[in-house]
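seq:
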Amino acid sequence: MAAAHRHDDLEINFVADGGPLLYLYGGELVEVAAGGLTVFWAAIPHQLVASGATRVHWLHVPFDRFLGWGLPQSLLARLLSGVPAVTPAEHADACDPAKFTQWASDLAAGDAELHHIAMLEIQARVRRLAFATIGDPGRGYAGDDPALRQVVAMARHIAQHFREPVTVADVAAAASVHPTYAMTQFRKVVRTTIGEYLKLYRLAEARRLLVTTDLPASQVATAAGFGSVSRFYTVFTAECGTAPARFRHGRRVSPLD
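struct:
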């Protein structure tokens, strides 16, 4: 994961052995310890910035299937708003290593019934994780790398203000650094530009609004921070491979609180 990126799946990561994974996700650093499990909506820009893990299981659940699970509204709202569910190692499920190994085997077998069984069990594990972490915003990073802290401050500013007009100077000010330094440091750590990262956030918000509201595309464009409806259509279609209306079709869920 060399650079911040996004995709429409529900991503599930389990750290089987070794040290922790450190993600930049949702404008925050999220640490997943060995034996820990995290679930998040991968349309939010995310990046693995450090890893001491020696074995990790990565599961991607297609967005349509994820929506079709009919998850509790509170969990769906949490994930779509960019808050991951993370279980610390001390509350890990001792069965997870065997479960993930079994799911990997079942999903690779090419058998429809085994695939169906595995997906039912994965859904149940996500629901159990959500139940165990109700009210928990996630485990933050406890380290003190000054350069990483600066980038996190910039990423947090983008996460909080992407719906508004945002300039490089605004982002730099959030980390108390010069704009030129901000652009260099951000690209060094996140491996993409501030503008590209901002675009990824706006696209994620547009997806969320298309799926969870009845807002017309013109209002989605404004609410997600795009400067014009035409730019929204151009960027969304190029990045998502389909127009906003087609993306919404068949994916609509009940309004979320």
